[in-house]
Write a structure and sequence with these properties.
The protein is mainly β. About 15% of the residues lie in helices and about 55% in strands. The protein has a single domain, classed as monomeric porin ompg (Porin, Beta Barrel), CATH 2.40.160. It has a 16-stranded antiparallel beta barrel with strand order 1-2-3-4-5-6-7-8-9-10-11-12-13-14-15-16.
């Protein structure tokens, strides 16, 4: 329940938090979100707290080798279930010229941060949690790291390297992680790569970008691979996107997700998502449809409500969330 308490405390001090975040020096950054949701995705009304934050100091890209740091935090708490986990991604960062960055320590996987949009299912945080725990997500690394106590019986140790570079309209990221688990016969080597390419305005679609990535997990016994590719377009009021992804395990799973949101006013927006999941070689297909509305206040606060109809659970999901985006 610690995350829920932290989220409520944050919600009650939104304005002070905003001033602090906006007053950071030019070479420091803070992004992410923290929220509390009331959801019924298990069939009973529960409280779900979630947070994903990134804070850091950008290294000086002038003469010499600039040094900075980055800290990522992922956490969730589901009341009544006993599920409550949090992980930290600390890394030292080094500037490689004017366009490159090297992160050493526990950097975030490139499949989850910086390249591929992490769009929710029409504002449904509980659907995101369900997809992540079940493996229907972009990064194998972040799933096993955060949900290790639930899935593996213990949290694995993790460390690695990450490179980010920008070349004109194209960004490229690559990472290597080493994961070890107490009692496991072998450590796992995890390799990942991702890209994002800005195409610029395309007709009435507005600014358009292509993105994609792949991650390979190998511990000498298990070989897992995940892929994701897609496109997103942003006009003044409308954002649309399509993500195609595949997880190759003993039973491969293919996912297609179409999402859109429309900004009616500076404060009010409507979001919709459609997702199709196909287990290759066995298992039933699953479809999910989501619709959500959101009201934004101050400069980062939001209140949203969502409805999701899905074949994954036995009941439809209605959720209300209060949160803050940095």
């Amino acid at each position: 329940m610690k995350l829920i308490a932290l989220s409520i405390a944050t919600a009650s001090t939104f304005s002070a938090t905003y001033v602090t975040a906006q007053s950071l020096p030019d070479n420091m950054y803070l992004d992410g979100y923290i929220e509390v949701s009331s959801t019924d995705f298990t069939g009973d009304r529960e409280t779900l707290g979630r947070a994903s934050l990134n804070f850091g100091l950008e290294p000086n890209r002038g003469a010499g080798l600039g040094v900075g740091f980055s800290i990522g935090i992922d956490a969730f708490d589901l009341s009544g279930s006993g599920l409550s986990e949090a992980v930290v991604y600390p890394a030292v960062t080094f500037a490689l010229g004017n366009t490159g960055l090297l992160s050493v320590g526990v950097p975030r996987p490139v499949m989850d941060y910086g390249y591929i949009p992490q769009d929710t299912m029409a504002h449904s945080s509980s659907m995101d949690l369900l997809f992540e725990v079940s493996g229907i997500t972009n990064s194998i690394t972040s799933r096993l790291y955060l949900y290790g106590p639930v899935l593996l019986g213990d949290r694995p140790n993790l460390y690695g390297l990450r490179y980010d570079g920008e070349f004109g309209n194209t960004k490229i990221g690559a990472a290597y992680h080493r994961m070890s688990l107490s009692g496991a016969p072998n450590d796992a080597d995890i390799y990942s790569i991702a890209f994002q390419h800005r195409l610029g305005p395309i007709g009435g679609l507005g600014e358009t970008k292509l993105f994609g990535g792949a991650e390979v997990f190998n511990d000498g016994g298990s070989n897992l691979t995940t892929y994701a590719f897609g496109a997103e377009a942003n006009s003044d009021k409308l954002r649309t996107g399509l993500i195609l992804s595949k997880l190759d395990t003993t039973i491969s799973v293919t996912k297609a997700k179409l999402y859109a949101d429309y900004q009616f006013t500076d404060r009010f927006s409507l979001a919709g998502s459609v997702m199709h999941i196909n287990p290759d070689g066995g298992g039933a297909n699953a479809d999910s449809y989501g619709l959500g509305v959101e009201y934004q206040f101050l400069n980062g606060g939001y209140l949203n409500a969502s409805y999701t109809s899905t074949d994954i659970t036995s009941n439809d999901i209605f959720e209300v969330s209060l949160g803050w985006r940095f």
